[in-house]
Amino acid sequence: MTTLEYDDIYNMTIDENIYNNDDEYDKLMSKEKVVLDTINRVVNQKYEEKNENTMLDSSIRYVVYKVFIIVKNVMSELYNRKPIDQVFTSKRSLYIGIFFVFVSVCFIILNKSI
Questions:
Q1: How much is the pTM?
Q2: φ, ψ of residue 11 in degrees (nearest 5)
Q3: Half-sphere exposure of 38 (CA within 13 A, CB side)
Q4: Separation CA 16–CA 49 (nearest Å)
Q5: 3-class secondary structure per residue, the chain
Q6: Which portions of the chain are predicted below pLDDT 50?
Q7: Whose CA, among 22, 62, 66, 81, lies 20 to 30 Å from 73?
Q8: Domains of the chain: which residue ranges?
Protein backbone atom coordinates (compact mmCIF):
# COMPACT_ATOMS: atom_id res chain seq x y z
CA MET A 1 0.00 0.00 0.00
CA THR A 2 2.78 2.42 0.82
CA THR A 3 4.57 1.79 -2.47
CA LEU A 4 1.44 2.84 -4.33
CA GLU A 5 1.27 5.97 -2.23
CA TYR A 6 4.92 6.76 -2.98
CA ASP A 7 4.38 6.07 -6.67
CA ASP A 8 1.45 8.49 -6.72
CA ILE A 9 3.48 11.19 -5.02
CA TYR A 10 6.40 10.58 -7.36
CA ASN A 11 4.16 10.81 -10.42
CA MET A 12 2.63 14.02 -9.11
CA THR A 13 6.06 15.57 -8.65
CA ILE A 14 7.08 14.72 -12.22
CA ASP A 15 3.94 16.24 -13.70
CA GLU A 16 4.82 19.62 -15.24
CA ASN A 17 1.34 21.04 -14.64
CA ILE A 18 1.75 20.99 -10.88
CA TYR A 19 3.57 23.97 -9.41
CA ASN A 20 3.82 22.76 -5.83
CA ASN A 21 6.37 20.02 -6.37
CA ASP A 22 8.29 21.09 -3.28
CA ASP A 23 5.24 20.51 -1.10
CA GLU A 24 4.85 16.95 -2.34
CA TYR A 25 8.55 16.31 -1.83
CA ASP A 26 8.34 17.67 1.71
CA LYS A 27 5.37 15.39 2.44
CA LEU A 28 7.31 12.41 1.18
CA MET A 29 10.40 13.31 3.19
CA SER A 30 8.41 13.85 6.39
CA LYS A 31 6.85 10.39 6.00
CA GLU A 32 10.29 8.89 5.44
CA LYS A 33 11.61 10.68 8.52
CA VAL A 34 8.80 9.26 10.66
CA VAL A 35 9.42 5.74 9.36
CA LEU A 36 13.19 5.99 9.93
CA ASP A 37 12.67 7.39 13.42
CA THR A 38 10.36 4.50 14.29
CA ILE A 39 12.83 1.95 12.95
CA ASN A 40 15.70 3.56 14.90
CA ARG A 41 13.69 3.44 18.12
CA VAL A 42 12.86 -0.24 17.62
CA VAL A 43 16.51 -1.05 16.97
CA ASN A 44 17.60 0.94 20.03
CA GLN A 45 15.01 -0.80 22.18
CA LYS A 46 16.18 -4.23 21.02
CA TYR A 47 19.79 -3.23 21.70
CA GLU A 48 18.84 -2.04 25.20
CA GLU A 49 16.97 -5.26 25.96
CA LYS A 50 20.00 -7.24 24.88
CA ASN A 51 22.32 -5.21 27.11
CA GLU A 52 20.08 -5.01 30.18
CA ASN A 53 23.01 -4.78 32.61
CA THR A 54 23.73 -2.20 35.27
CA MET A 55 26.03 0.59 34.28
CA LEU A 56 28.89 -0.88 36.31
CA ASP A 57 28.61 -4.19 34.47
CA SER A 58 28.42 -2.55 31.03
CA SER A 59 31.32 -1.80 28.74
CA ILE A 60 32.62 1.72 28.30
CA ARG A 61 31.54 1.65 24.67
CA TYR A 62 27.95 0.90 25.67
CA VAL A 63 27.92 3.65 28.33
CA VAL A 64 29.25 6.25 25.88
CA TYR A 65 26.73 5.10 23.26
CA LYS A 66 23.90 5.31 25.78
CA VAL A 67 24.97 8.80 26.95
CA PHE A 68 24.92 10.26 23.48
CA ILE A 69 21.70 8.51 22.45
CA ILE A 70 19.96 9.87 25.55
CA VAL A 71 21.33 13.38 24.96
CA LYS A 72 20.13 13.20 21.33
CA ASN A 73 16.68 12.06 22.44
CA VAL A 74 16.49 14.79 25.11
CA MET A 75 17.40 17.45 22.57
CA SER A 76 14.81 16.21 20.08
CA GLU A 77 12.13 16.06 22.77
CA LEU A 78 12.98 19.58 23.96
CA TYR A 79 12.83 20.76 20.35
CA ASN A 80 9.38 19.17 20.01
CA ARG A 81 8.33 21.03 23.20
CA LYS A 82 7.51 18.08 25.39
CA PRO A 83 6.95 18.83 29.08
CA ILE A 84 10.14 18.97 31.15
CA ASP A 85 9.01 16.28 33.58
CA GLN A 86 8.58 13.84 30.68
CA VAL A 87 11.96 14.71 29.17
CA PHE A 88 14.13 14.53 32.30
CA THR A 89 13.11 11.25 33.90
CA SER A 90 15.02 9.52 36.67
CA LYS A 91 16.08 6.84 34.19
CA ARG A 92 18.01 9.42 32.16
CA SER A 93 19.47 11.51 35.00
CA LEU A 94 22.66 9.46 35.42
CA TYR A 95 23.51 9.59 31.72
CA ILE A 96 22.75 13.31 31.48
CA GLY A 97 25.03 13.87 34.49
CA ILE A 98 27.81 11.90 32.81
CA PHE A 99 27.37 14.06 29.71
CA PHE A 100 27.67 17.27 31.74
CA VAL A 101 30.82 15.97 33.44
CA PHE A 102 32.28 15.12 30.02
CA VAL A 103 31.48 18.58 28.65
CA SER A 104 32.94 20.22 31.78
CA VAL A 105 36.18 18.29 31.46
CA CYS A 106 36.42 19.30 27.80
CA PHE A 107 35.98 22.97 28.73
CA ILE A 108 38.63 22.69 31.47
CA ILE A 109 41.07 21.16 29.00
CA LEU A 110 40.32 23.90 26.45
CA ASN A 111 40.75 26.60 29.07
CA LYS A 112 44.13 25.23 30.18
CA SER A 113 45.38 24.90 26.61
CA ILE A 114 44.59 28.50 25.65
A1: 0.53
A2: -65, -35
A3: 6
A4: 50
A5: CHHHHHHHHHHHHHCCCCCCHHHHHHHHHHHHHHHHHHHHHHHHHHHHHHCCCCCCCCCHHHHHHHHHHHHHHHHHHHHCCCCHHHHCCHHHHHHHHHHHHHHHHHHHHHHHHC
A6: none
A7: 22
A8: 1-50, 54-114
